[in-house]
Amino acid sequence: MWKKIARTAQNYVPGLAEVKNEAYHWARSTFRLAHDPAFAAIADLPRREDDLFIDVGANRGQSILSMRRYRPDARIVCFEPNPRMMLWLKGHFGETEGVRLIGVGLGDKCHRRTLYTPHYKGFPYDGLATFDAEISRRYLCEATLFGFTPEAVTLQQQTCALLPLDAFGLRPTFMKIDVEGCEYDVLAGARQTLRKARPVLMVERYYGDARVDLLLRDAGYIEVVHREGGFWPGRGQGENAFWMPPQTLHTLASRSGVSSC
Predict the structure, then answer these.
(1) Are 191 and 212 in contact (CB under 8 A)?
(2) Exposed, middle or buried, 247 (CB in 10 Å: 0-12/13-18/19+)?
(3) How far, in Å, are 89, 92, 206 from residue 96 at the CA level?
(4) Of 32, 150, 238, 253, which residue has the fewest beta carbons closer than 10 angstroms?
């Protein structure tokens, strides 16, 4: 309810959204707050001196802060194609040690795509930008805004560069992927990385795209559930799905003294 009220108010009060975003960033940075409780699972992952986390769809850096809340020692590489979001990221994380910002999107090949940013009565919802026009338009509705009128929704279009993750030669140990319906494309461009580095994955639920499950199972991954300080095979119910190689799960189970079956 409060989110809906705030979201509606920012359409009519100039500057309110920026005040809200700055307040969220200050609170999370100052008090080391995770924006999503699912990130607590990071604390129970295997630790290496060369740990590298990848944030695909960095938005305003909320995942950066959540990762550093539980693993301040890990290096983080962030990918964000939205130029407005990159300005925010550079202003707030550009000088942060251990954080690298890359202003491109990830996809299944090197190409350019149209990024759609929904506007309501002229107010831009930059954090909801996506490469899928239908999904972008679907965000703003009666469920998310009071007094919603469909005619007030417009989509701003801009062309952005996309590259496959495999082109960067990175060896991540953990990847968070939140790209508003384009998860399959990101994973399709990361097949070599998944095969060589075997990172643990945290993937936003993918709008019913069965190709994601098939790709990850073909890559030798299983879905796991995080609870009570550990991981178990199974399908979770939250907004994010965790995937890892069976060997990683066995390693974690042997360290904790519980069965991975």
Answers:
(1) no
(2) exposed
(3) 10, 8, 31
(4) 150
CB-CB contact of 165 with 186 (8 Å): yes
Specify which residues 226 forms β-bridges with.
231
Rounded to an integer, what is the distance from CA 91 to the centroid of its chain?
19
Q: Give ∠ CA 132-134-137 in degrees, rounded to 5.
A: 110
pLDDT 10s digits, 58-104: 999 999 999 999 999 999 999 999 999 999 999 999 999 999 999 99
Q: What's the first-to-final CA gap in the chain, in angstroms?
A: 40
Whether pLDDT at 260 is above 60? no
pLDDT of 200-229, one tens digit each?
Answer: 999 987 666 899 999 999 999 999 999 888
Q: If we measure between CA atoms, which residue out of 49, 1, 34 comes closest to residue 176?
A: 34
Sequence-separated (6 or more) residues with CB below 8 Å from residue 104: 79, 81, 160, 161, 162, 163
Bridge partners for 119 per DSSP: 124, 154
* pLDDT single digits (tens) 126-179: 988 999 898 888 889 999 999 999 999 999 999 999 999 999 999 999 999 999
Q: How confident is the model at residue 57 (pLDDT cuts 50, 70, 90)?
A: very high
Question: Which residue segments constitute the domains of the chain, with CATH numbers given?
Answer: 16-110+169-256 (3.40.50.150)
- The DSSP call for residue 149 is -
> Which residue is it, tokens 């990071």?
42
3-state helix, strand, coil in the chain (%, to 5): 40, 25, 35
In the structure encoding, which two tokens stand for residue 154, read together? 């417009």
